[in-house]
């Protein structure tokens, strides 16, 4: 059995006063938002009024549901009927209003919301799902529910949350009880209890098995039971062994087979949708383990160098801005194995800027902070600001320059005209530089503000806080409804009120609003020296001593 390193964790503090650890995802935030109203950047109070409004509306209308239909107040569940919107946003509330920091003016209200959420969690039976089948997705359950429970425990010290985390962790651990000890993608808890139904799927997205380490490791740290850490470590053994034997060494294909322990065959590569959190967790695991697991440094370095060469491009822009966008790569399966860059970017990839910033600090590569971290983050900020609504489309295309130097990347109107005419998705109203907005929606995603927050904490550059404010204003105005906030159908047209979809994802509360809040909070609020955020923005406390780490009781 793999055991967690028992040496004293290394101190991995960044070299600047702005904290650096991670920005990956808080899934649990249990309390009640303070009502601040920030009117300008000079007001140091973080923007919380949107989160308070949305959370209160959701709580009144659907306290145990996954989504809120923001225009009709109907609700729906897409996550096993386990109250995702309770888990997901609850530690956002704790971040903004930690129980031990509640102001005397409203102590009862703040504590009662937290206690109410804890009580609701204590009553949940994780062995029962909405349809009674007991079948759940391990990846989603791990990052949302287990991550949320662990973060809420780390923030509050409530033993019931640790008890529920272990209860759920044991159910997920059963998903590794296969012949090769590789996890299934979906698990039926009822059948698993009887030793049935565990068949490792033939092909899954790489993010699914690759995003189990952070939560399982933290569960081992707080319980002292190494079985969770061991289970996830076996999976990472496979990824480590295959990393440099793919068609793009350093990167893994988007689809892998854990049934065959095959993470090398495949010709599509990317670091955004379907692969994102696999890469995100590598430097974060290095941070969570206090630098005691050297393989996470070597794996991080390999993917960061490979992604920079294969996937990033400088777009040709009318203002000649020096930013980077993230595409995907397709390798033809022939003797030449030529690699083709596909210059299609998506909102999901915007987390990468923060990962380069974090990794640059962790691994003493300052050039990663400036050359990739700043430029990728600014590329996403550009995509927000370029649209008339101030919001970034879900997916879009641009014209890549031949190289990243200024001489090779000057604006060429004729070239842009030719390229856009090749695209059937081209629309006349799109801003110059864009050749498509293939998916013009904004669905309340957090990845861009996530990187803006991380880069602000790492560099202290005012430009990132200014960008955060611009984004917050645009998103607040564009997504607000009578009941909460809603996904926007088309951000390329400023025709207010903007057409919207009738739902609000729980990650709006758990992640997006949390990162907006943190972007305007003092650096000691979820300090990146002390916490690692998972891919759902749930903060895990970094251990200060080997193996078992128990927070102070609140």
How is the topology of this model organized?
Layout: E1 25-26, H1 49-61, E2 67-68, E3 75-76, H2 84-96, H3 107-122, E4 135-137, H4 138-156, H5 159-173, E5 186-188, H6 189-193, E6 204-205, H7 207-210, H8 213-223, H9 227-242, E7 255-256, E8 268-269, H10 276-288, H11 294-310, E9 312-313, E10 325-326, E11 328-331, E12 339-342, E13 344-346, H12 351-362, H13 366-386, E14 395-398, H14 413-421, E15 434-439, H15 447-459, H16 462-479, H17 507-519, E16 531-533, E17 539-541
Antiparallel strand pairs: 2-3, 4-5, 6-7, 8-11, 9-10, 11-12, 13-14, 14-15, 16-17
Helix pairs in contact: 1-17, 2-4, 2-17, 4-5, 4-8, 5-8, 8-9, 8-10, 10-11, 10-12, 12-13, 12-15, 13-15, 13-16, 15-16, 15-17
Task: Please tell me about this protein's structure.
- With 554 residues, the protein is mainly α.
- It has a single domain (25-541), classed as Alpha/alpha barrel (Glycosyltransferase).
- Helix content is 41%, strand content 9%.
- The strands form seven sheets. A three-stranded antiparallel β-sheet has the order 8-11-12, with no helix packed on it. A three-stranded antiparallel β-sheet has the order 13-14-15. Strands 2-3 form a two-stranded antiparallel ribbon.
- Helix 4 packs antiparallel against helix 5 (159-173), helix 13 (366-386) runs parallel beside helix 16 and helix 15 runs parallel beside helix 17 (507-519).
- The longest helix has 21 residues, at 366-386.
- The two termini are 34 Å apart.
- Mean pLDDT is 85; it is low at 12-44, 55-64, 99-110 and 550-554.
């Amino acid at each position: 059995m793999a055991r967690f390193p028992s040496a004293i964790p290394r101190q991995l503090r960044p070299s600047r006063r702005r904290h650096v650890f991670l920005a990956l995802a808080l899934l649990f935030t249990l309390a009640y938002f303070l009502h601040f109203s920030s009117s300008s950047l000079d007001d140091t109070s973080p923007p919380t009024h949107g989160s308070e409004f949305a959370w209160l509306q959701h709580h009144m209308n659907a306290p145990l549901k996954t989504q809120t239909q923001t225009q009709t107040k109907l609700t729906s569940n897409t996550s096993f009927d386990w109250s995702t919107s309770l888990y997901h946003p609850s530690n956002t509330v704790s971040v903004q209003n930690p129980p031990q920091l509640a102001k005397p003016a409203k102590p009862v209200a703040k504590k009662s919301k937290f206690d109410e959420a804890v009580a609701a969690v204590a009553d949940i039976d994780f062995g029962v799902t909405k349809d009674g089948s007991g079948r759940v997705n391990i990846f989603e359950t791990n990052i949302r529910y287990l991550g949320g429970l662990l973060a809420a425990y780390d923030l509050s010290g409530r033993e019931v949350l640790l008890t529920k985390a272990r209860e759920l962790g044991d159910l997920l651990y059963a998903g590794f009880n296969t012949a090769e000890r590789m996890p299934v993608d979906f698990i039926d808890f009822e059948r698993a209890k009887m030793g049935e139904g565990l068949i490792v799927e033939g092909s899954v997205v790489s993010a699914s098995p690759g995003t189990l380490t952070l939560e399982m490791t933290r569960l081992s740290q707080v319980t002292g039971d190494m079985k969770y850490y061991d289970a996830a470590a076996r999976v990472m053994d496979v990824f480590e062994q295959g990393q440099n034997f793919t068609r793009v060494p350093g990167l893994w294909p988007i689809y892998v087979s854990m049934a065959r322990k095959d993470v090398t065959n495949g010709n599509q590569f990317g670091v955004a949708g379907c692969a994102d959190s696999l890469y995100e967790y590598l430097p974060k695991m290095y941070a969570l383990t206090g630098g005691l697991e050297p393989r996470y440094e070597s794996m991080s370095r390999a993917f960061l160098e490979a992604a920079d060469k294969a996937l990033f491009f400088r777009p040709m822009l009318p203002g000649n801005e020096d930013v980077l966008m993230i595409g995907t790569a397709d390798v033809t399966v022939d003797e030449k194995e030529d690699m083709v860059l596909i210059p299609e970017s998506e909102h999901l990839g915007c987390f990468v800027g923060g990962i380069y910033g974090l990794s640059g600090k962790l691994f003493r590569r300052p050039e990663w902070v400036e050359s990739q971290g700043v430029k990728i983050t600014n590329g996403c900020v550009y995509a927000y600001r370029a649209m008339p609504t101030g919001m970034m489309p879900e997916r879009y295309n641009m014209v890549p320059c031949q190289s990243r130097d200024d001489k090779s990347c000057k604006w060429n109107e004729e070239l842009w005209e030719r390229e856009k005419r090749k695209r059937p998705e081209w629309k006349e109203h799109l801003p110059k530089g864009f050749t498509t907005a293939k998916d013009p929606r904004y669905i309340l995603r957090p990845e861009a503000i996530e990187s803006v927050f991380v880069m602000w904490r790492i560099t202290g550059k005012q430009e990132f806080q200014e960008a955060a404010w611009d984004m917050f204003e645009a998103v607040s105005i564009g997504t607000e409804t009578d009941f909460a906030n809603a996904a926007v159908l088309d951000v390329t047209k400023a025709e207010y009120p903007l057409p919207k979809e009738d739902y609000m994802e729980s990650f709006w509360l758990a992640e997006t609003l949390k990162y907006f809040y943190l972007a305007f909070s003092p650096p000691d609020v979820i300090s990146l020296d002390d916490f690692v955020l998972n891919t759902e923005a749930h903060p895990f406390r970094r251990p200060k001593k080997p193996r078992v780490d128990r927070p102070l009781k609140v």
